[in-house]
Amino acid sequence: MVVRLRLSRLGCKNRPFFRVMATDSRSPRDGKHIEVLGYFNPLPGQDGGKRMGLKFDRIKYWLSVGAQASDPVQRLLFRSGLLPPPPMVAMGRKGGERDTRPVDPMTGRFVDAEKKTPVIIDNQPKEEDNAQDKSP
Q1: Which of 7, 79, 102, 116 could link 18 by a cystine bridge, Cβ 3.0 to 4.6 Å?
Q2: Residue 64 is inside which H or E element, if any?
Q3: Where is the composition biased (Basic and acidic residues) (predicted)?
Q4: Distance (Å, whole) CA 88 – CA 91
């Protein structure tokens, strides 16, 4: 039995509300669950923020015994500071080759593998090159 941490949808039409659940991977989205681990309300409240409540100790327990978080739950856990950022792959051009260098999720820049620092890549030609091309 593979345990997954995933969202179960509650609420009415056009007013979603989600619970973070530990469930068997074979059970349906809103079906049988093992444990309720928190909630997530994607609609902004009166203060303009999205509401989220998680039981950190229980989530850490399920992750330690091998439970796998779904992609939306992984993003929620990253926002709350429980998990490291998910690996991102940058895409060069539409239909082109994919760039497999890791990208820093906070800045959107490429991360140098050895130094773990963002690398700034300047793709625009320098003004000096443009001046030389225009002069006869």
Answers
A1: 7
A2: helix 56-64
A3: 124-136
A4: 10
Q: 16: which strand partners?
A: 11
pLDDT at position 80:
84
- The whole-angstrom separation of Cα 132 and Cα 127 is 9
> What pLDDT, on the 0 to 100 scale, is given for residue 90?
45
Query: What topology is assigned to 1-78 in CATH?
Result: S16 Ribosomal Protein; Chain: A; (3.30.1320)
Measure the CA–CA gap between 80 and 57, rounded to whole angstroms: 13
> Which tokens belong to 100?
């497999």
Token duo for residue 54: 């998680």
Domain regions of the chain by residue span: 1-78
- Dist. CA 136–CA 124, nearest whole Å: 22
Note the pTM of the prediction, 2 decimals: 0.60
- C-alpha distances in Å from residue 87, one per residue of 6, 95, 98, 100: 19, 21, 14, 10
